[in-house]
């Protein structure tokens, strides 16, 4: 390092620069990825680490599950590869659910960063890939061995030479080899972008290593987080919630204990491992538990190893939030995305008026495995394709604001545009619109879910991999708020469908979806009448709900409806 120690102001500038470096790293992945889930939905993460594997900065673009799980992953890479085997030009890879980010469909790439021949740190990134072989993306597997191709922590490139044998194995085991190999190269490229920007920064600030800036970042982040925790009441509280599960309901139980220098989240009493692939490795449950607490307690403190450290997570092995190998974990996000709502059920008893009501929780994902029709001759041009579609229900209402419509919380993954989805394969999205009445009533209304109508182009049939919850257990309101709308699913001819699992949809049929709404916060009687009129005018609620839930008079309803019909309504 330069002989003159940089000032705190200079270190702060460097910190901000590191955050911009990893954001450019993430955007490079968005621009170069082959999978629509990365390009359009932002299902990825990117970060920079010091030479000891401690995360220093994360990209703004990305999901908490990926970022916070990846925070623990680099230490596994160092241990598995061995420090003596880390060389300039290396790139490492894994999709290990327990040492990566929770399931086989996430590929994590780690690249050591060298400056002037000296190892100074690592860049890491993760992306969800459309296919990894096996049964395909879904909950039907009975063990992780059925869920796809496993890549242990290994070298993707050794001193600049890509392992061609690895690529041949990958290509021979997946349904979309070009997409997957393209994504692997995109992951490696985005780390390289981060490395180049870091080297430029180190040249500019005359740094020989990252030790000084690392200590500045980690010390300040840790101290600031401890200050927030120290201001909380010293107490414990319990929370719980029940969700659909696969065949039987799943209960998450949480006990939060606030100490002077940490918060312990204990999941003892939570349901055991499920026979199907909705189980969650601890690394992923930990990621979302930490995220929930940081959002409520220290949202303005940047995410890094030190700001996460005071949030301690415990869960007995064999519970669904600490599933061990070889449990099936393909849809670990379903349970993981409910962890924040379970944590908030407890935190609301410690910090009333801070956390939101329950929302849709898990992403409303589905994957279509399309193929030429088999009940009659298929037309020329009919083809096979795997299309993964990310969508979201409504977010829960907040103490001071309505819930966001069709917005994924806690994952933050974006809803995929119809155009991008239909470009990825022979899919037709016949309908996609907000679902009126699905937001739970309250002083603050829950966010609306969506209606969707999904089919295939002429000459195709498909398997529909459902990955939904909230069918039997809609989002619960908080502080007197009403529940959100439940998930509905079926074919357009009335054939019922399950919320989870692979289901055949014949040629000409469509899947009709009602995605769940977020719950309300506070009593509906306390809602501002002007907001009720606005919701009615926008079509978020109907006349019956305005009268039934909010006590609006028939005369006021008629006045609003007339103003909308005549074009006199001003929002």
TrEMBL record:
Enzyme Commission number(s) from the entry: 6.4.1.8
GO molecular function, one term: 5-oxoprolinase (ATP-hydrolyzing) activity
Hydantoinase B/oxoprolinase domain boundaries: 9-523
Single Gene Ontology BP annotation: glutathione metabolic process
Region (Disordered): 476-500
Keywords: Ligase
Superkingdom: Bacteria
GO CC terms: cytosol
Name listed for the protein in its UniProt record: Acetophenone carboxylase delta subunit
